[in-house]
Amino acid sequence: MTFLLETIRLGLKNLRLQIFRSILTALGIILGVAAVITMVSIGEGTKREALREIERLGARNIIVRSQKPPESAQQQGGQQQNSFIARYGLTRDDLAVIEQSFPDAEAIVPVKAVGERVLHRDRRQLSQSFGTTPKLAELANLRIARGRYLMPSDLDSSATVAVIGAEVAKELFPFEDPLFNTVMIDDKGFTVVGILEPVGLAGGAGAALIGRDFNLDVHIPLTTARQVFSDLTIRRTSGSFGGEEVQITEIYISVVSRDRVMVDADRVRRIMEVRHPNLTDVGIKVPFELLQSARRSALTWNMVLAAIAGISLLVGGIGIMNIMLASVTERTREIGIRRAIGATRRHIVWQFLVETSVLAAIGGLAGVALGIGLSLGIEPLMKALPHLPFIGHLFGMDSSLHTHITLWSILVSFFVAALTGLVFGLYPAMKAAAQDPIVALRHD
User: Fold this and answer.
1) How far apart are CA 281 and CA 274, in angstroms?
2) How far is CA 174 from CA 120, 170, 246, 277, in A?
3) How many domains does the chain have?
4) d(CA 149, CA 142)
5) Are residues 47 and 172 in the same domain?
6) Are residues 237 and 334 in the same domain?
7) Same-domain pairing of 41 and 123
8) Nearest to 121 by CA among 173, 161, 167, 162
9) Is residue 277 situated within a structural domain?
10) 259-295, pLDDT tens digit by residue?
11) Are residues 134 and 246 in the same domain?
């Protein structure tokens, strides 16, 4: 024990005598550990944010959606026919079959797209208007900022009321209170009874999965949508007209548990394949399936990030070995004196290993602190970037980069840093111990 303590004391003394060089030597380890922790935290934070966005769609939901078949698009672009009506997508009969096939489902919510324009006085917003039921708010995890959502009484009375998204409220009512004001869907007036909270899916993975941004939605009662708006939408151009007839745009199915999601999704797919051969005009989205895929992708991404950052640790280890080899050459005479007064080769090996291990351990601790600091500072920095002079215009106001510090990245990076010190310090230590004492004493 006395030998070990004396060796550690001597090693620390030698490092302190060359403090500036010791710091530069440890810099590679410091940056390597910090890079591992920071990159893993970015990968983990991005993964968690993506998973949150997907989970907002409902991990127990199945989304069946009408989609325009390729032949309709080709017909619309053809020159042989000036007028046509394209009928495709989900029908009310499809909805009835799904309701009969899934009597134990928590909820089955139809959604019908209506209108082409949303206006308030002279202001117009590229919004999406949908007829639906009150259960959509729960299924799609929508929250009300002010007012209320649709109610069963609205469906019973076919009320001309609307709930608008946060972006619609912002654009159509910049200087007015939207509540109990009127919006026009095409030429039909609706009273605003509720405003949705901003939904974080805008522009993110969730928006791409669901196919639209809820912040731009306008929701009205499904019964009102059927009475006031037709299933047929006509578009006229010079010399011709075209039309599309879609009875139901989407159907949300909420199953009783996550364990049933994939099984029920297969049942829905089989039902739709019978009623819509080859599923040319119907698409099926399963957020839970996408959630599993996102988790696998995130795991792979984390491994790649950790591997890339690990290269920094390797470079740091090589730096330690180079410096310690130079140190062996500089301290050849010291090694000869120690051997002459009784130090064994084992003593010399331990002295150099202690120095490299201490360098790596201190570098590892400093790297952990730097990595945690960088990880915690990234999110505030991203929020501050749009407000910086000269470069602020390059970043959007919603710029964000989420991080999440993981314990395993701290432990693994520190362990690898310490191991790096031992591995890369072993060769210089053995080279120092192999010095012939007489030759070493003659060294200038």
Assistant:
1) 13
2) 11, 5, 34, 47
3) 2
4) 9
5) no
6) no
7) no
8) 173
9) no
10) 788 889 999 999 999 999 888 889 888 877 766 776 7
11) yes
Residue count of the chain? 444
Place of tokens 């605003």: 192
Question: Which spans in 216-260 are helix H?
Answer: 222-228
Per-residue tokens: 226: 């059927």
Domain housing 307: 2-53+294-442
Burial classification of residue 13, based on how many CB atoms lie within 10 Å of its CB (0-12 exposed, 13-18 middle, 19 or more buried): exposed
pLDDT at 169 > cutoff 60: yes
CA distance 65 to 94: 11
- Can you tell me the distance from the alpha carbon of 252 to that of 62, in angstroms, rounded to the nearest whole number? 6
Mean pLDDT of the chain: 81
Shared domain for 399 and 314, answered yes or no, is: yes
269-302 per-residue burial string, b: 16 or more CB within 10 A, e: under 16: bebbeeebeeeebbebbbbbebbeebeeebeebb
Q: pLDDT (tens digit, 9 = 90+) per residue, 316-335?
A: 778 777 777 777 777 777 77
Q: How far apart are CA 48 and CA 406, in angstroms?
A: 12
